[in-house]
Design goal:
Blueprint lengths: L5 E3 L18 E8 L2 E5 L6 E6 L2 E5 L7 H9 L7 E5 L5 H4 L2 H6 L3 E5 H7 L3 E2 L6 E2 L10 E3 L2 E3 L5 E4 L10 E5 L4 E5 L18 H14 L5 E4 L7 H23 L4 H6 L7 H4 L3 H15 L4
This protein binds zinc ion (ZN).
The site of zinc ion has 6 residues, from loops.
């Protein structure tokens, strides 16, 4: 987990002497991936990748709204950092899109898959816990969208991960020179993932997404998930196998006419729970996602 220089937020911001008193200092953990590429972690927030270039900073994801200022201060303190010019949203979740409003109002490019933009223009409610996500104001919505793939002048490539591993707008961002692949929540580096089936994610998509990531990476690629440590190709292969096993078991239960409660009781993840954590929520959502995808009248 990084462990390199922790940056004290706020210090190098111009005009700080005139700024109002800052709240208690949060410390960002900064892991240097190459000369110009950094993994920035704030406590409780999803991973952010920051590239410093002569034309300004490129971000992959932007933390939640409450941490946006802390994130942008941490990024401003990176060696060689200029203003943030571009941000990618790997999907629509608030843990990724919390800096959109600040950056969008400043006229910066917000790049996302078109489906991500669409989810951010509507209110979403998760049926299992009633959690409501309000649409973002217009300036915070992605202003540069794509359907399949794209590239920046710098050589950075990006593209849709159409398997719906997490949502139907999942995307990767690949830095070829540094051989770093950011994949958002398509890969969970820490515990069981959220299966957000109301916006398209499903357990079969988790398997498909992990297989697709293997086609985008090589043995040396460092793969950055939205949560947890940097991973390698071997980690992705092991995860693909695990989720394939779980997918097969849940599909069999579905074919036998079982329901989500029976799926949880069948303990389809039992040999993985010691490593991955309490599975009930994940199993229930995964099973519901099969209904959403495989039931003819869903
Ligand atoms: Zn997410």
């Amino acid at each position: 987990m990084g462990g390199a220089a922790g940056l004290v937020l706020g210090t190098p911001v111009r005009g700080l002497a005139q700024a109002p008193a800052q709240p208690a200092l949060a410390v960002a953990d900064m892991e240097r991936l190459s000369d110009d590429l950094f993994l920035v972690r704030l406590p409780g927030e999803a991973n952010v990748v920051a590239q410093t270039t002569a034309d300004g900073v490129l971000l992959v994801d932007g933390a939640s709204a409450g941490a946006s200022t802390a994130l942008l201060n941490a990024v401003a303190a990176l060696p060689g950092a200029g203003p943030v010019q571009t941000i990618f949203n790997t999907h629509w979740h608030p843990e990724q899109t919390g800096s959109n409003e600040q950056l969008g109002k400043a006229g910066r490019a917000i790049i996302a898959h078109e489906n991500t933009r669409l989810w951010l223009t509507t209110d979403v409610t998760w049926p299992w816990d009633g959690r409501r996500f309000k649409r973002l104001p217009a300036p915070a919505q992605p202003n540069k969208t794509f359907y399949t793939t794209g590239a920046l002048n710098s050589g950075v490539r990006y593209g849709h991960i159409p398997d719906a591993a997490h949502t139907d707008g999942d995307m990767y961002v690949y830095f070829p020179k540094q051989n770093v692949l950011a994949v958002g929540d398509v890969v969970s580096g820490q515990g069981w993932p959220v299966v957000d089936w109301p916006t398209g994610g499903w357990i079969g998509g988790i398997v498909g997404g992990l297989q697709r990531v293997q086609t985008l990476a090589n043995e040396e690629t460092r793969i950055v998930p939205a949560r947890g440590p940097v991973l390698g190709l071997a980690d992705i292969k092991a995860q693909a196998e695990m989720y394939r096993t779980i997918y097969d078991r849940l599909s069999q239960l579905l074919n036998k006419g079982r329901g989500p409660g029976e799926a949880v009781a069948a303990a389809p993840t039992k040999e993985f729970d010691a490593k991955m954590g309490a599975p009930d929520e994940f199993v229930r959502r995964s099973f519901e996602s099969l209904w959403a995808y495989l039931s003819p009248d869903a």
